[in-house]
TrEMBL record:
GO molecular function, one term: metal ion binding
GO biological process, one term: proteolysis
Species whose genome carries this gene: Pseudonocardia endophytica
Subcellular location per the Swiss-Prot or TrEMBL entry: Cell membrane
TM helices/strands, residue ranges: 69-91, 103-126, 132-152, 184-211
Protein name as it appears in the record: Zn-dependent protease
Top-level taxonomy: Bacteria, Bacillati, Actinomycetota, Actinomycetes, Pseudonocardiales
Length: 231
């Protein structure tokens, strides 16, 4: 695959390498996202996450591999939206405070942001072929998008989990009722409302540039990752 990433992004072999690397990297980032939730929960008082194997970074240990990995990959390929799925079951009653509960929810998206920054710095300071630059850049962009998307205050997303411990009981109950379908409603808006997706990604490219990323490199990688859209 590294040989495939050594050429121009316009070469079919390079596009295939970018596609494989980006998907594999996204799968790894999903694992890091869930690990982020688990390690903060463990430090916050929920020692059950260790017994469940969530601290091993082993994909097989997560509660629902389909919901946490397969579904997010399908959503990514169909709509281009990097939305991690929940798989780590946290014992909220074991957490010591509302701040700990909030921190557990924030930790998953934070892992995506840290990975995105690390990849952006790597691309910026390490000389590498154009195709590898494009592949790592689009992977970094996906991390930034995942960070922002997950922190939206929508029930079922981590952003809601950050706020929920501080909300009144009535708001928590409403959130619990709409939690199963609210994220899919958000996806429907971004995918099917004309202009919503393009506007969202335009903003994300601006955010990506603010952390030092090159939007053009990320766009080249995005085109290679979703090569069928230009067929």
């Amino acid at each position: 695959m590294l040989a495939a990433l050594g050429g121009s992004t316009d070469e079919p072999l390079a596009k295939g390498g970018i596609f494989v690397m980006a998907l594999a990297g996204w799968a790894v980032s999903l694992c890091l996202h869930e690990f982020g939730h688990a390690v903060v929960a463990y430090r916050g008082g929920d020692t059950s996450v260790a017994m469940k194997g969530y601290l091993t970074l082993d994909i097989r240990r997560y509660t629902d591999v389909g919901y946490s990995f397969v579904l997010p990959l399908i959503i990514l390929l169909i709509g281009g939206l990097p939305l991690p799925g929940g798989a780590v079951w946290i014992n909220q009653w074991a957490l010591r405070s509302r701040a700990r509960r909030s921190a557990v929810s924030f930790a998953g998206p934070a892992a995506n942001l840290v990975l995105g920054v690390v990849l952006t710095v790597l691309v910026g300071f390490v000389p590498m072929p154009d195709a590898l630059v494009a592949g790592l850049s689009v992977l970094a962009l996906l991390q930034v998008v995942a960070f922002v998307l997950n922190l939206l205050p929508v029930p079922g997303l981590d952003g809601w989990g950050v706020l929920e411990p501080y909300l009144p009981r009535s708001a928590q109950q409403l959130g619990a009722r709409v939690r199963p379908w609210a994220p899919f409603a958000l996806l429907a808006v971004l995918l099917f409302v004309p202009g919503a997706s393009s506007a969202f990604f335009t903003v994300m490219l601006i955010v990506y540039s603010l952390i030092g990323g090159n939007p053009l490199d990320a766009a080249n990688g995005y085109d290679a990752l979703f090569f069928w859209q230009s067929l």
